[in-house]
Write a structure and sequence with these properties.
The structure is a single chain. The chain has a single domain, classed as Metallo-beta-lactamase, Chain A (4-Layer Sandwich). Helices cover 22% and strands 28% of the residues. It is built from seven helices and 14 strands. It has a seven-stranded mixed β-sheet with strand order 6-5-4-3-2-1-14. It has a seven-stranded mixed β-sheet with strand order 7-8-9-10-11-12-13. Helix 6 packs parallel to helix 7. It is globular, with a radius of gyration of 17 Å.
């Protein structure tokens, strides 16, 4: 499996950046995981629209889905040029209901709903969905293919499903959306330190910190994680990682 980072900012895009979006390539097929602001433009650096086989949306916050509306235009306009463009399957949570309803389209997307602890087969890989702890219905995912495991926390705080999600992952993308010095009584994102502690405890082979708030210094985020796990890395925009 190969994973390309199309967007890694949390909340809003950094200068020249994009919010959450990752392109997973396996078995010659292409799966887009999350589709935030600026992701579609970066996607086209790597594949054509008609090469996109499926989309997974971990939750329906706009920094993870805002380019879905633009994607509908892209499909529609592609068809109007005469190119055969099949509808793209989209797997997403069913809530919040008003936002989920906005994903529907006339033949451009086929929407399927994620269920807690569900498991599906996609292009020879096994994809599992584990509920995370976030203000809206959110799922972390694992993708297992050819003996390798990718884990993606989406957005979460420490919860009971994180250890099984991360356990023995070859590559883990983790939500390092905040820092310990910014800790509040109620948190909605993992700190960089929490990411590193969890990854180390779960024997993650390679940790990539993502969902980085543009208001924070990336060097500070990395330093906080590296104090707990020296191998921690910041995800790099447009970089491709072998899982």
């Amino acid at each position: 499996m190969n994973l390309t980072v199309l967007g890694l900012s949390g909340g809003f895009p950094a200068v020249g950046g994009a919010t959450s979006g990752y392109l997973l390539e396996l078995n010659g097929r292409h799966i887009l995981i999350d589709c935030g602001s600026g992701v579609l433009s970066n996607l086209f650096r790597f594949i054509r629209l008609e090469q996109l086989d499926a989309i997974i949306l971990t939750h329906l916050h706009y920094d993870h889905i805002s380019d879905m509306q633009v994607l509908k235009y892209a499909i529609d306009l592609t068809r109007k040029t005469g190119l055969d463009m099949p509808a793209i399957p989209v797997i997403a949570p069913g809530t919040p209901e008003n936002i989920a309803a906005g994903l529907q389209s006339d033949g451009n997307l086929i929407i399927g709903q994620i269920n807690a602890n569900s498991e599906i087969s996609m292009f020879g890989a096994t994809v599992r969905f584990l509920p995370m702890e976030h203000p809206v219905e959110t799922y972390g995912i694992t993708v297992e293919f050819a003996g390798r495991k990718l884990a993606y926390t989406a957005d979460s705080v420490p919860c009971t499903n994180l250890p099984p999600l991360l356990q023995d992952a070859d590559l883990a993308l983790m939500d390092a959306g905040t820092l310990e010095r910014l800790r509040k009584p109620i948190m909605i994102h993992l700190t960089a330190a929490e990411c590193a502690i969890l990854a180390r405890a779960c024997r993650v082979r390679r940790l990539l910190l993502t969902h980085l708030l543009p208001l924070l210094d990336p060097a500070e985020i990395l330093a906080e994680a590296a104090a707990q796990d020296p191998g921690a890395e910041l995800a790099r925009l447009l970089a491709t990682y072998e899982v």
